Amino acid sequence: MISADQARHRLRTDFQVGILMLFGVCAVVGILPFAIYRFLVGHFLVGVIDTILVVVIAGAGFYALQTGDTRYPGMLLVIVTTSAATLMAILHSAGLSWMYVALVASFFLVDRVTASLATLLALAILVIHGGAFHSPLQMSSFLITALLVSLFSFIFAYRSEMQRRQLVALASQDPLTGLQNRRAMEQELQIAIETRRRQKTPCGLVMIDIDHFKDINDAGGHETGDQVLMAFARMLRRSTRQVDRIFRFGGEEFVLLMPGADVAALGRITEKLRCAASALSELAPAAVTISLGGAALEEGEDWQRWLARADAALYRAKERGRDCAVIDAPSDPERHEAVRPT
């Protein structure tokens, strides 16, 4: 059971969880009174369907809030709500109005392809059965309006998803280099901590600083400095694996997250990056060199401590004359420190 603060944070940051919870609240407020009314007037079957809908929808929203998993609750809700709305329409023609709600909701609960298939299947069942319609004219009118509602929902869901992705990118991406920013880094480090705890696999972290970057800006101007930063970001992408994560920590500092990398691997990659950085000198008025500090994740360590060890190693590299790499060496005698003399 998550705390109230965690629940509020999840609702603020996870759009899909918010949709599922909103759907659950709407189900309780909008459907539960109808369920009570059905029982009072003797429509027990429809009342049972309404009650099941309320329980399933509210339960799926609560599950998503507790676990953060939205895929399976969303699929369950689409199946249940679309099936229930179809059955209610067949049992009573007034139930056709609930089909519109189910069709619109589908496009916000699951991906658009799955929602489209669910929509077409439900409409096909209603047409083939035919019992929900009093005349062919009513059937044609319902099909046209239902398809239009589905089309508009498809477009709106697509636009909403695109805008949401753009906002996420703006919040987590550095506009100059295109790398992920510090905010995204904190989330990725936390994920790496959890992966290390479950799978017991090594993971490495490297902090990188472009040496004397202020001199480059002063001599060549900020435009030259920006060109060096962008070229450096491209070099990092070329020199690392697809599974590695690269972040712009701030200014001329970068962070490299390397799943599966131990101390020895960190020593190799830092030397590779140090050599590759020298090729950027042609863009600057002076030679481009970098200092690097690395640390392998330790058992039970939080990301703040892990990052601090890598930062301390970077500081030691600067103290030793820059243009070198220092890998943090814990007290374990089997571990070592890799330093390239300048």
Walkthrough of the structure:
By secondary structure, the protein is of the alpha+beta class. It is 66% helix and 9% strand. It has 13 helices and 5 strands. A 5-stranded mixed beta sheet has the order 2-3-1-4-5, sandwiched between helices. A hairpin with a 2-residue loop joins strand 2 (245-250) and strand 3 (253-259). Helix 2 (15-30) packs antiparallel against helix 4 (44-67) and helix 6 (96-109) packs antiparallel against helix 7. The relative contact order is 0.07.
- Taken from the alpha-carbon principal axes, the silhouette is elongated
Briefly note the structural class of the backbone.
alpha+beta
Strand order in the largest sheet: 2-3-1-4-5
Compute the average pLDDT: 87
Helicity, in percent? 55-70%
Quaternary state reads single chain
- Give the terminus-to-terminus CA distance: 54 Å
Instruction: Sketch the topology as an H/E string, one letter per element.
Output: HHHHHHHHHEHHEEHEHE
Q: Low-confidence spans: pLDDT under 50, at least 5 residues? A: 331-342
Radius of gyration, whole Å = 28 Å
State the helix count: 13
Q: Please provide the count of β strands.
A: 5
- Describe the sheet with the most strands: 5 strands, mixed
* Strand portion: 5-15%
